[in-house]
């Protein structure tokens, strides 16, 4: 019986075309699937980056293709006071603004994590500075910092009477720098606050209850539960925030254009200023390339600083 | 150690009342289990004892002190959570030492207590591990270790075994009971599993819809359930309940299929009950095989090895029976059964109360 049944089966031969067999080839399939993504990366990422680096080693100007001049652009930048100022400005801008964004953002996230009335509405409102186009908010800040029509000056002088003169926000180097930092903090808070809020919500409430029963007060619960549990996401957000702030262009260019007298130029704005309106494409590219070491350092920091801590690892990594 | 008194405690969320005046006295050193189906308010009650929920009405005392307005950290209690709530960024040793570090206890004392607790629970080799590197049962033990180190007045357990697999659950059940016999700390334990309650408790509190249905020693609840809910909740497989009438000849069960009902023997007829509508309860394990008894058709046979669960149909009703003997009958065949008359239960059909 069993034998007869086996004999009566017909084995159909697979008769597939070469195309079908080609698509069954794993190597071919991998290549063909990777192609679109790889092409996009090469055309829109690698090529511009490579071109920028190449331009930094030439004396190209707008309307004139340049020649390879080695490190000449970088040497001249080394002695360029405006460039050096822009480096210091960028470092100051990044560090102060990042600290400010994180202090206020964390505070805001902790507030929003509580049970507040209109919680979802508040959370949505927090995002407003982030969804408004930067140039639009920059123009708003331009008005806020206007020497004649500034609302801050108006409140301080005419309403409260704390000052006698209007503040010259953008006319002096230091006030201009702090004004820009304040604008950047305002714009950066939502990103930090919402990211950290997401992190806070992953912390199990029973951990707080356990800590409460263990005798921890509010500060101790923050220090021993919230902060360590938030550390991984804090580090990621910190890295992103540093990268965004370091490469910031829009706010500064829209509010001060690097003025007064080049005092508020960041590396990004200076690169643009020299390269496009100034026509010195090679020099502009060199300034932009000079940002790369800083950005690489920030990335390395994130790579090593963010390495999974021991407590995050599973049993297989013991 | 301390006693816990719960007097007329109520809990309301807005206008919805979830606990309607509960009174429980827990003696010093007693192991009390709050048991009930989900949503009965047992966990809420436990969290009120812990201070994690406000008390809407009534009074809770730990020892002589009313703790209604005492913050959790001053109640001197330790709690084991269902998800263990171990601090993931601390080692096992740090997890256990955390409460003492917060109280700034001297390091030597912390080390001593932690190592003692670790010894009791067999955690000595795991002290430097992180919670993520532990199995479920080990995490459970660390959570208990954290409670033991505190040496609190009262232990609170909130469904501590429900995240473990069945075999480990049985093992941990024994361990917790042994731990309690050793430490003799007053314990309040919440579970929805009546077997856990039966095996571990000195006293079981059966809760349902925010009230206490019955309170007493495990076997007392098993032998004399006060009402239909407790009768159905305690015991596994659940008690068989038949609708019908009490007559002088015995209990006349209704036949849902419309035919003639069976008459079941009653051990002791309650006074003034002739003709009264009632519910007849008989536990599966209190049915005997008896060739002379009631003829019943076998529907399903489930051998477990140590015993045989059989669902039979007689008088139009399905009945679950548990026999120690092995049954050779096949589904569709007829066997004879008879109930142990001494251990049958009668409940008022209208009120559900025991007759």
Automatic annotation (TrEMBL), chain A:
Gene Ontology CC terms, in alphabetical order: plasma membrane
Membrane topology of this protein: Multi-pass membrane protein
InterPro entries referenced in this protein's UniProt entry, alphabetically: MetI-like (IPR000515), MetI-like_sf (IPR035906)
Cell location: Cell membrane
ABC transmembrane type-1 domain mapped to chain residues: 87-302
PROSITE patterns xref list: ABC_TM1
Biological process terms in GO annotation: transmembrane transport
CDD domains: TM_PBP2
Keyword entries, A-Z: Cell membrane, Membrane, Sugar transport, Transmembrane, Transmembrane helix, Transport
Organism domain of life: Bacteria
Listed transmembrane segments: 28-57, 91-112, 124-145, 185-204, 225-246, 285-306
Protein family: Belongs to the binding-protein-dependent transport system permease family.
Name of the molecule in the record: ABC transporter permease
Organism: Bosea thiooxidans
From TrEMBL, chain B:
Coiled coil region boundaries: none
A Gene Ontology BP annotation from the UniProt entry: carbohydrate transport
Subcellular location: Cell inner membrane
Entries under InterPro entries matching the protein: AAA+_ATPase, ABC_transporter-like_ATP-bd, ABC_transporter-like_CS, ABC_transpr_MalK-like, ABC_transpr_MalK/UgpC-like, Mo/tungstate-bd_C_term_dom, NA-bd_OB-fold, P-loop_NTPase
Domain of life: Bacteria
Alphabetized Pfam families for the sequence: ABC_tran, TOBE_2
Keywords: ATP-binding, Nucleotide-binding, Transport
UniProt GO MF annotations: ABC-type transporter activity; ATP binding; ATP hydrolysis activity
GO CC terms: ATP-binding cassette (ABC) transporter complex, substrate-binding subunit-containing
Domain ABC transporter as annotated: residue spans: 4-234
Membrane topology: Peripheral membrane protein
Family according to the record: Belongs to the ABC transporter superfamily.
Name the UniProt record assigns to this protein: Carbohydrate ABC transporter ATP-binding protein, CUT1 family
Organism: Bosea thiooxidans
């Amino acid at each position: 019986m069993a034998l007869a049944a086996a004999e009566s089966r017909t084995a159909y031969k697979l008769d597939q075309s070469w195309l079908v067999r080609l698509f069954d080839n794993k190597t071919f399939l991998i290549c063909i699937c990777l192609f679109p993504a790889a092409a996009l990366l090469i055309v829109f990422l690698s090529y511009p980056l490579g071109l920028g680096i190449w331009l930094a080693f030439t004396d190209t100007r707008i309307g004139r293709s340049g020649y390879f001049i080695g490190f000449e652009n970088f040497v001249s930048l080394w002695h360029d006071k405006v460039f050096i100022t822009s480096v210091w400005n960028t470092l100051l801008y990044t560090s102060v603004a990042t600290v400010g964004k994180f202090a206020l953002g964390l505070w805001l996230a902790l507030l929003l994590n509580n049970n507040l009335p209109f919680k979802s509405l508040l959370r949505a409102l927090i995002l407003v500075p982030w969804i408004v186009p930067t140039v639009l908010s920059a123009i708003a800040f331009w008005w806020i910092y206007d020497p004649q029509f500034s609302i801050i000056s108006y409140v301080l002088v005419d309403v409260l009477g704390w000052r006698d003169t209007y503040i010259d926000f953008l006319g002096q180097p230091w006030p201009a720098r702090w004004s820009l930092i304040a604008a950047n903090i305002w714009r950066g808070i939502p990103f930090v606050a919402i990211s950290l809020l997401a992190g806070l919500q992953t912390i199990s409430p029973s951990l707080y209850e356990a800590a409460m029963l263990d005798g921890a007060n509010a500060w101790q619960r923050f220090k021993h539960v919230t902060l360590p549990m938030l550390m991984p996401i804090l580090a990621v957000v910190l890295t992103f925030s540093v990268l965004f702030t370091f490469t910031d262009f829009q706010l500064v260019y829209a509010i001060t254009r690097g003025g007064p007298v080049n005092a508020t130029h960041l590396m990004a704005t200076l690169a643009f200023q020299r390269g496009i309106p100034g026509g010195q494409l090679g020099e502009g590219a060199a300034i932009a390339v000079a940002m790369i070491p800083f950005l690489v350092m920030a990335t390395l920091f994130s790579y090593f600083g963010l390495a999974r801590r021991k407590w995050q690892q599973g049993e297989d990594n013991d | 150690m301390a006693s816990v008194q719960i007097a007329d405690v109520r809990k309301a969320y807005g206008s919805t009342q979830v606990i309607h005046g509960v009174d429980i006295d827990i003696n010093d050193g007693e192991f009390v289990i709050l048991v009930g189906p989900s949503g009965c308010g047992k966990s809420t009650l436990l969290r009120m004892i812990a201070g994690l929920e406000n008390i809407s009405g009534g009074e809770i005392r730990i020892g002589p002190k009313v703790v209604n307005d005492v913050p959790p950290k001053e109640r001197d209690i330790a709690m084991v959570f269902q998800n263990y709530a171990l601090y993931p960024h601390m080692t096992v040793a740090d997890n256990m030492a955390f409460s003492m570090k917060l109280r700034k206890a001297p390091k030597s004392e912390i080390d001593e207590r932690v190592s003692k607790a670790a010894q009791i629970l067999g955690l000595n080799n795991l002290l430097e591990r992180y919670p993520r590197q532990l199995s479920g049962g080990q995490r459970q033990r660390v959570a208990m270790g954290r409670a033991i180190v505190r040496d609190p007045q009262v232990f609170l357990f909130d469904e501590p075994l429900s995240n473990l697999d069945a075999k480990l659950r049985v093992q941990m059940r024994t361990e917790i009971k042994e731990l309690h016999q050793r430490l003799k700390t007053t314990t309040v334990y919440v579970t929805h599993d009546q077997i856990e309650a039966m095996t571990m408790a000195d006293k079981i509190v059966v809760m349902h819809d925010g009230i206490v249905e019955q309170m007493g020693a495990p076997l007392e609840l098993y032998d004399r359930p006060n009402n239909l809910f407790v009768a159905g909740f305690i015991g596994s497989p659940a008690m068989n309940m038949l609708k019908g009438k009490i007559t002088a000849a015995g209990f006349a069960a209704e036949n849902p299929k419309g035919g003639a009902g069976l008459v079941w023997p009653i051990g002791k007829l309650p006074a003034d009950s002739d003709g009264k509508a009632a519910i007849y309860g008989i536990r599966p394990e209190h049915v005997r095989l008896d060739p002379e008894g009631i003829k019943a058709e076998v529907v399903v046979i489930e051998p477990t090895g140590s015993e045989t669960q059989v669902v039979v149909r007689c008088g139009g009703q399905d009945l679950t029976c548990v026999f120690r003997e092995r049954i050779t009958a096949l589904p569709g065949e007829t066997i004879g059964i008879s109930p142990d008359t001494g251990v049958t239960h009668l409940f008022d059909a209208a009120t559900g109360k025991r007759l």
